[in-house]
Amino acid sequence: MYMELFPPEIEIIRKRVKRMTLRIRTEDECVICTIPWYVSKAETLEFIHKNKTWIEKQKQKIRQLRAMHIHREKGMLLYMGESYRVVAVEHATMPGIINKEEKIIISSINTEDESQRKEWYTLQAHSILPPIIDEQARLHGFAYKKITIKHQKSKWGSCSVDGSLNFNAKMMITPEHVIHYLIIHELAHTREFHHGEKFWNLVESCCPDYLEAEKYLRTMGRVIEI
Ligand SMILES: [Zn+2]
User: Which of 62, 68, 84, 177 is deepest in the core (most CB within 10 A)?
Assistant: First the structure.
């Protein structure tokens, strides 16, 4: 067996595929090129070269997300718009202790395990959201039935006709003002079950900066991943 030598920032995966594909690994911006068995090194390098502009764009996007703290690094967790380093300590619990000053989370979580991350965000949502929802409901006179935390791909929340509220655990990654808006949005649906003018006026009266949160969800919200 021989080793094909490629620059270190390029990783080649030979597979039973029909065509060459590219992706950029977010952790280290390495270019991962999947190629069919029969493609030569020269052809591969040419393919990568041809896609230079696309690769640069992807790398820029990754850097942008990282700068905005919504890109997760190894051993880190994103929480309320900030990046936290996870420190494993013996006897630490899964939800752990969140030190906001030092941006450290002491927890038993294995940050590289997606199902553990999902569980962690669910636990945080369960402990953080109900008191805030309760307070906001009392403050603005909304009545709701129960709160459910879910994992959905694109939905941030929903409100059923009977006043049950659903929230996406992923929202715990977004900044506090966005969480506040998402709560107000669903609470407002307990009174206005639509997205008409009356609904938005109600949202604005409870959350004057809601447009900023909406903008965040339209841009950053799309790329946030647990
Ligand atoms: Zn809505």
Answer: 84
